[in-house]
Specification:
Helices cover about 30% and strands about 25% of the residues. It is α/β, with parallel strands linked by helices. Strands 5-4-3-6-7-9-8-10 form an 8-stranded mixed β-sheet. The chain has a 7-stranded mixed β-sheet with strand order 11-12-13-15-14-16-21. Strand 23 (about 565-575), helix 17 and strand 24 form a beta-alpha-beta unit. The N and C termini lie far apart (about 95 Å).
């Protein structure tokens, strides 16, 4: 007991007064070495509560079923043990199989010396709690007295808490318990609730305080998660052993967080919440994700703060049996349209038709939007770790994962031209027919097989820089989607190259009266309004000078020339290759009212500004 220690000359250091707050970072090993070295082996520090307040709760939850080992054989791990006497009290209470872990060599050395004679069976290890070198499934109970709270300081890398809890879950046996003493700050509770949501029975207790205690004035709580064999989602029970009315916001916030979490858990139990994280799936919320389950469809999101660059929405489909064997076990389909993706969610039969088309035993559909504005290889590198975790079976070879790009939901594609410019980089032109063409196509040219010509730049190859409507149609012949197999370390893209018979026949012409871009439509509307006003203020026959920075496919200036003939348009484009592409593939033409200047835009604007200033002075 603590009193006996003080009678022997030991000193209890109250943690709220003695923590190295001035040192800043609770995860810094040198800070803690200095803290413990300055106090010596005779001192001990207690976080949140002392043994009298913890003994009953701990003994009740360390009483395992009759089939479990007796108390002296229960394997107990105490991470971030510090110089607390908690493990000493447990040892004296009959729990002899205890391993203590801390990354401070100073405190481990001091604790070994202090317990060598009286508790010879106690084990001490210098070890980082986020990387514990023990075998999986070997621990009956983990007792954490403030360790997670120290890792979850607001200014510290948020991944540390996640990594540590993953380690704790890995080490526990089925039926094992994670017992955490915490101040229950909202961000700590949020992590605990998420990490122990599926396959764990969770209870929360308010720890009674010693009336004359010098420990922290905040209420301490004991979070206990028991590892279930069955993957169920259970409500969290809150056991309040004493009045919490005097603790104000701390307890009020806890109740609010608990109510929110239990609402989430109820939705999972009732099946009303259909989106899952990868962590949810790994914990079994949809069964064993490592085993194929024909007909299973799961909406999920992928990504992790501090780990991946982006977050992704996805749909996982385990294919139903086919008359012919599957072509491959695992396929990944990237879709470059959120609208198309929403049409493929689990309620849509189109998702299963797509799975049949790809002939994959498991198909993972991932949507990319404008936020994923990087090269395809960068996307694959970012998401690959999550893709691998969703593979059916164990240790699937990476070159057996088939990656496919649906490219905005097209059903036919012809790659027309590729060129690499020293200024712009790779430039690609292709003609596509969409499954669901835009609804604003003019009636005379409207068709379910309307052809769109697209300009794509390599730096943003996932998205069309410009898109034009062609005036001719193509035969509805299927062109395979771009696909390849993924070999880590050697990313390469192989795009389909359809023959002429699969592409358009006859001459094609760009319809410059149609604009697919909402931005272009907005600019056109504004200039049309301006033209109405300019007819009253500008002399007849005089054109309004308009400058467009960046040519692209030339669709905007060509449409402006058609709709607003009172404009004198000058386009500024740095790259001559872009101009040639616009002329060759998008029917761009210059005339007296539309000119292109191949020059730097800043230089052009400065020169024009200078000429205007000189003219004004002269006048």
């Amino acid at each position: 007991m603590a009193e006996n220690g003080e009678q022997r000359g030991e000193k209890c250091v109250r943690i709220e007064k003695e923590l190295p707050i001035a040192f800043g970072n609770f995860t810094n090993q040198e800070n803690w070495d200095f803290f413990y070295a300055a106090r010596g082996a005779g001192n001990f520090s207690e976080w949140y509560a002392d043994w009298p307040q913890l003994r009953t709760l701990l003994r009740n939850h360390l009483s395992f079923p009759p089939s479990a080992p007796p108390p002296e054989e229960l394997s107990i791990l105490v991470p971030a043990c510090g110089n607390s006497r908690l493990s000493e009290h447990l040892y004296d209470d009959g729990f002899r199989n205890i391993t203590n872990v801390d990354f401070s060599r100073e405190v481990i050395s001091a604790m070994m010396k202090r317990n060598l004679r009286e508790r010879p069976g106690m084990r001490w290890r210098v070890m980082d709690m986020t990387d514990m070198q023990f075998a999986s499934g070997t621990v009956d109970a983990i007792i954490d007295k403030g360790g997670l709270d120290a890792l979850m300081e607001p200014n510290i890398d948020p991944r540390l808490g996640t990594i540590y809890l993953s380690e704790a879950k890995r080490l526990l046996k089925a039926g094992g318990k994670y017992i955490c003493l915490t101040a229950a700050q909202s961000h700590v509770l949020g992590l605990l609730f998420r990490k122990f949501r599926f396959g764990w029975k969770v209870n929360l207790y308010a720890v009674a305080q010693e009336p004359s205690s010098g420990t922290t004035k905040q209420r301490a709580f004991m979070f206990i998660a028991e590892k279930y064999i069955l993957t169920v989602v259970s409500q969290i029970s809150f056991m309040d052993e004493c009045s919490v009315e005097s603790h104000g916001n701390q307890v009020r916030e806890l109740f609010e967080a608990l109510e929110r979490e239990n609402t989430v858990r109820a939705e999972y139990s009732n099946g009303t919440d259909t989106w899952h994280s990868l962590n949810d799936l790994n914990q079994g919320v949809q069964g064993n994700i490592g085993v194929l389950e024909p007909g299973r469809a799961v909406n999920l999101f992928l990504g992790e703060t501090g780990v991946s660059r982006f977050f992704y929405s996805g749909l996982l489909l385990d294919g139903r049996p086919l008359p012919i064997p599957f072509s491959h076990q695992y396929g990944v389909l990237f879709v470059y349209s959120m609208q198309t993706f929403h049409g493929l969610l689990t309620s849509s039969p189109r998702s299963w038709a797509l799975a049949i088309c790809h002939k994959a035993a498991r198909l993972l559909i991932v949507v990319l939007d404008a936020n994923h504005n990087v090269l395809a290889n960068d996307i694959e590198s970012d998401i690959f770790r999550f893709i691998k975790q969703l593979a059916p079976g164990d240790n699937i070879e990476e070159d057996k994962i088939v990656i496919t790009y649906a490219d905005e939901g097209y059903k036919q594609k012809k790659n027309l031209y590729k060129v690499t410019s020293t200024l712009t980089g790779p430039i690609a032109i292709d003609d596509v027919i969409y499954f669901d063409p835009p609804g604003d196509i003019p009636t005379p040219g409207k068709s379910k097989d309307s052809i769109f010509r697209r300009l794509r730049f390599g730096r943003t190859e996932a998205f069309a820089r410009s898109e034009a409507l062609l005036s001719t149609q193509v035969e509805n012949k299927k062109v395979p989607a771009a696909s390849r197999t993924l070999k880590k370390g050697k990313p390469r893209m192989f795009e389909s190259q359809p023959s002429d018979s699969q592409a358009s026949s006859g001459d094609t012409k760009v319809d410059h009266k149609y604009l697919s871009s909402g931005l272009y439509k907005g600019l056109l509307s504004g200039l049309l309004l301006f033209s109405v006003h300019s007819k009253r203020t500008i002399p007849a026959g005089r054109l309004v000078k308009t400058v467009i920075i960046g040519l692209g496919a030339g669709l905007l200036p060509m449409s402006l020339r058609n709709y607003v003939p009172t404009l004198k348009i000058e386009c500024v484009e740095l790259d001559l290759v872009v101009l040639n592409v616009a002329k060759e593939y998008f029917s761009f033409e210059e005339d007296d009212s539309l000119k292109v200047h191949i020059t730097d835009a800043m230089k052009f604007v400065k020169e024009r500004a200078g000429k205007i200033a000189t003219t004004s002075c002269c006048n």
